């Protein structure tokens, strides 16, 4: 599969649909139990997942944002690990925000560009000042 090849070629995470792993699972389930196709797809799934988790950890270590779109499972793992790290350091760095209404691209008082966002979209913001701006202006709410 080309996804595996592209993930092996570089140390960067490549954007993948948010339902990528679900699609792989559905494809595997379409094959007969115990078939070679199903075994190969399962092996491919595990290889891609392992490579991407390693890259995800490197992104966390270097404070990089993950690309969009990213599979939901990876976004959740990314945020959970960052929460644990931030809790242990006493620092708040990233937050998951649910956008409460559609907004065009905006510039915050600190000069950061946010958006455009659709209503109910969940976004990840690294800067606490951006999180505070979104909440104070009733543009978003923190998602746990």
Number of domains: 2
The biggest beta sheet, please? 3 strands, antiparallel
Overall pLDDT metric: 85
* Binned strand content: 5-15%
- The helix-strand sequence is HHHHEEEEHE
If classified by CATH, what would the architecture of the largest domain be?
Up-down Bundle
Tell me the strand order in the biggest sheet: 4-1-5
User: What is the name of the CATH class of the largest domain?
Assistant: Mainly Alpha
- Kindly provide the radius of gyration, computed on alpha-carbon positions and rounded to a whole number of angstroms: 18 Å
Give the % helix.
40-55%
Distance between the termini: 35 Å
- For the secondary structure, the number of strands is 5
Fold-level CATH name of the largest domain? Methane Monooxygenase Hydroxylase, Chain G, domain 1
| Poorly predicted runs of 5 or more residues | none
Which structural category do the helix and sheet elements fall into? mainly alpha
Can I get a quick summary?
By secondary structure, this protein is mainly α. Helices cover 49% and strands 11% of the residues.
How would you characterize the overall build of this protein?
This protein is mostly helical. It has 2 domains: 1-91, Methane Monooxygenase Hydroxylase, Chain G, domain 1 (Up-down Bundle), CATH 1.20.58.1030; 94-144, Ribosomal Protein L9, domain 1. It contains 5 helices and 5 strands, in the order H-H-H-H-E-E-E-E-H-E. It has helices spanning 2-9, 20-29, 36-61, 72-89, 128-136, and strands at residues 95-99, 106-107, 113-114, 122-125, 140-142. The strands form 2 sheets. It has a 3-stranded antiparallel β-sheet with strand order 4-1-5. Strands 2-3 form a two-stranded antiparallel ribbon. A hairpin with a 5-residue loop joins strand 2 and strand 3 (113-114). Helix 1 packs parallel to helix 3 and helix 2 runs antiparallel to helix 3. The longest helix is centred in the middle third of the chain and has 26 residues, at 36-61. It is elongated and about 55 Å long. The two termini are 35 Å apart.
């Amino acid at each position: 599969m080309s996804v595996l090849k592209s993930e092996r070629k570089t140390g960067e995470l490549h954007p993948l649909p948010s339902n990528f792993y679900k699609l792989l699972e559905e494809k595997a389930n379409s094959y007969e139990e115990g078939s070679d196709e199903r075994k190969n797809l399962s092996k491919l799934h595990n290889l891609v997942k392992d490579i991407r988790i390693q890259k995800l950890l490197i992104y966390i270590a270097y404070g990089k944002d993950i690309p969009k779109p990213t599979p939901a499972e990876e976004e959740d793992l990314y945020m959970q690990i960052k929460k644990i790290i931030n809790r242990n350091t006493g620092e708040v760095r990233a937050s998951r925000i649910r956008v409460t209404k559609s907004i065009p691209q905006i510039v915050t008082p600190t000069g950061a560009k946010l958006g455009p966002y659709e209503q109910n979209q969940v976004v990840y913001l690294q800067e606490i000042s951006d999180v505070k701006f979104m909440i104070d202006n009733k543009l978003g709410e923190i998602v746990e």
